[in-house]
Structure formats: C-alpha cells, structure tokens
Amino acid sequence: xxxxxxxxxxxxxxxxxxxxxxxxxxxxxxxxxxxxxxxxxxxxxxxxxxxxxxxxxxxxxxxxxxxxxxxxxxxxxxxxxxxxxxxxxxxxxxxxxxxxxxxxxxxxxxxxxxxxxxxxxxxxxxxxxxxxxxxxxxxxxxxxxxxxxxxxxxxxxxxxxxxxxxxxxxxxxxxxxxxxxxxxxxxxxxxxxxxxxxxxxxxxxxxxxxxxxxxxxxxxxxxxxxxxxxxxxxxxxxxxxxxxxxxxxxxxxxxxxxxxxxxxxxxxxxxxxxxxxxxxxxxxx
Length: 285
Description:
It is a single chain. By secondary structure, the chain is an alpha/beta fold. The chain has a domain at 5-114 and 193-280: P-loop containing nucleotide triphosphate hydrolases (Rossmann fold). Helices cover 39% and strands 21% of the residues. Strands 6-7-8-3-9-10 form a 6-stranded mixed beta sheet, sandwiched between helices. A 4-stranded antiparallel beta sheet has the order 2-1-4-5, with helices on one face. Helix 4 packs parallel to helix 7 (178-191) and helix 6 (142-162) packs across helix 7 (178-191).
C-alpha cells in the first residue's frame, strides 16, 4: 500500500507542475507535425495540446506513430514540418538534454536503469541536471556542496516514500522484481522535477497487481503533484480509466481525439484498434 496523501504532501515542496494562478494556457502544443523516414510517413499532420496537470493518452496499433511522437517531443527526432512548444518555448531543434532541462522527463518501454546500482543511487542520477557545482566547487566550497547534496538526497528520499519503495532503497536494481524496477524508473524521472512526464507503456509486462499499483501512482502524480502526463499505452482498460483525454492514431494519422467515452464509441477507432482486441476476445465487450 502506498503512503497516505498526508505523508506525501512535503514532496510538493520540491516537485510538481508549478501551475501559477491564471496560467491556464496549454503547457504543451503540437501543431501539424510531419515526420518521414525515406519516404515513409511516420507522423502525418498530427496536432494536439496538453494542459497543466492533464493526463493525455495516445493509443493506436503497433506502427501507428505513438513512439515517434514521443521521440519528437523529447528531441530524439526532428519533425520535417510543424511546431512543438512547451511552456511557450519551441522544442524543434533542441537536443534531448536541453528539453529535459526545460522540464520534460521520459520513461521508456524497456527499462533503462543502472542494474548494479542501488535504487537510491539510480534516483540520485535523476538529479544530475540540478547539481549546481563541479569538482572544483566541491573542493573549495565543500560546505555548500554538502548542503546541496543533502537537499538532493532529501528530494530522492521523499520520492522513494511517495512510490512506496523504502524497503528496497539500498537494494541493487538487478535484484528487484520487474514491476518494482518500473517504479524505480518512474522515480528517476520524477527526480528530474519535471512539469511534463512522457510515459511510454509504463505497465507493459506487468501482472494485474503491478498494473493497478502503477495506475494509482500515475494518478497520484497528476493529482497530488500536479504534473502533466502524456501516456502511450496498449492497456485500454487502464487508459480509459485514468486518462482525461485520448488521441487515437492509425498509420501515423490522427483519427480521433476526445474524452475516453467518445473514443470508445468512435467507429474509426473501433475499426482501427479497439475492434482488433474486441474480435480477439470472441466479441466480448
């Protein structure tokens, strides 16, 4: 069981979407982006926006362009045309580390942790972009360096508490169950103090209990920390339960966008994606 909201509250002193009063404009705006690879169109004129503290999901069959969108948002790919802005800043042409510094953190389908390091050390690595001193400063201003390191450690310890992984904080990641490793990866992304989280299939490979735990933590991040989330996920039950809005894609095209209820009833979505699962279950609803 995760800690109570009361015990988690201090984490908001260090993290959170930092939405300001009167600042209700879109946090992320994607306008008509196009991405091609050797003549193959991976993203075909896709547009959407994500508000502060919104949980926005992207769904579609394999090859629909979901991960390509994430790669454009995180600076791995550069769209051929279109615009992407985050908090008023253009992301086009920025490198991944520069985009991370703006306040965007990402998790991946495949876990990308340092297996031989402890949970604590992996999360501390998420604080690297907030470290304001180098080796020389640490040598000549040891007191300041220690105070800053202490503050980073406090942030990480509160994230560990938030994600209910205190009992494994000193364990090497390689020794942990898969579901806990995914939680550690989420914690490392939180350690970057993002305003926007990009979660790429966060429950892939998990059992039912692990999926339910992860869904709860994702909602807590949105509701308690007020961090916006863009979620790519194949688990339709999870998406429809927790997303505020959903973008459905097929062959790189945007085929529908709206509330989960409307997406579930959209004929083109049912044909392109939901229908595949429906038919594979023998017509069960």
